[in-house]
What we know:
The complex is a heterodimer. Chain A is an all-alpha fold.
Amino acid sequence: xxxxxxxxxxxxxxxxxxTKDFELPPIFGDNPFTTKPIFLVIFSVILISVFxxxxxxxxxxVPSKLQFAGESVYAFxxxxxxxxVIGHEFLRFVPYLFTLFTFILVNNLFGIIPIIQFPTMSHxxxxxxxxxxxxxxxxxxxxxxxxxxxxxxxxxxMPGVPKAAYILITPLEIxxxxxxxxxxxxxxxxxxxxAGHLLLLVFILGGEHLAQGALGLKLVSPFAFGIGIxxxxxxxxxxxxxxxxxxxxxxxxxxxxxxxxx
Amino acid sequence: xxxxxxxxxxEKLNPLIPHTSEIIVGAVAFSxxxxxxxxxxxxxxxKAFTARTEAIxxxxxxxxxxxxxAQQALSQYNDQLSKAREEAQTLxxxxxxxxxxxxxxxxxxxxxxxxxxxxxxxxxxEAERQQAVTSLRNEVGALAVELASKIVGEALDxxxxxxxxxxxxxxxxxxxx
Lengths: 262, 177
């Protein structure tokens, strides 16, 4: 919204969208808990809860359209993600994976829903929180399953590797399990949403700027809008994909922690 | 980490540094959603899945049972039918045998009767013939004697002589035939 106001200000050249466009000031005074992303997260929680409670309320054998829609999402996470990846113990992780998938998906889709048009996950704080949860979940699961000593030992000294290789592998493994995994998980999600939003801003604000310029530029601006629309579809795909990838990787990490050998 | 410092006013904003408020709200909101989905949604969907599986399995079991019962009934009917057929066959056989024996018996009886009747008829005919012969002989004898005595004029009162003469007469009569 800010960017929109700014780029249409007269006299200045085109100001490309930047990180400033992600800095949304609090809506009520200086309270940092009243920014748009925070409202969006709360809204998403209400939206998801209401939808799925309404869909699952009857739990009928022959589902209504609403129940079928909710069930399809749930069955996708349950069977295609949890069951296929984790195996026979999958059922107790379904609630977590289901929450993760729906939460990320809805917040991502906010990026292309008219009026809202802001992917919450382009604020890195939310992505960090989710990665942190996953980090704790899969380590907790591993420790519970194998005991702390054995779990750490298997991470540090991977069985079936020549002793000399530990010099190289042990630091890498520790790095992987305790730093790279949560970091890549959160940054992948954040960066995709951030870049996607930026890309849409470039073409849509650029198109708007061109429309206000000279005649020649006016003729070019529809192309910018056109590309903006194409990219919106592309973003839709990326948003779904990122929700899927985050959930899939979480399931894989849990499966790895449960496995007898890492 | 590179700073994204191409903001127009020279402000330095690093998008990788999270807002504290967002971390707090994100964590609370996600936890809340998790609790809601885990307590309200997941059990209901699982219930629906289980009920559906059971319904399908129950239906299949019921169908199997019904089929089994139908097959039992069918084999029972088939048994009964073949038994009835066998019974009918034996009955027919018995009836045939009985019929044959009855006909045989009747025929034998009829033949016997016929033979008896024939024999009785023969006997009575013979007796009557004998009687006729005897009476004829007597009468012819008396007539002939009377005739002869009348003609000859000679009294033939001696019994033995008389019958001897008659016999001779009759023999002659028979020879002359």
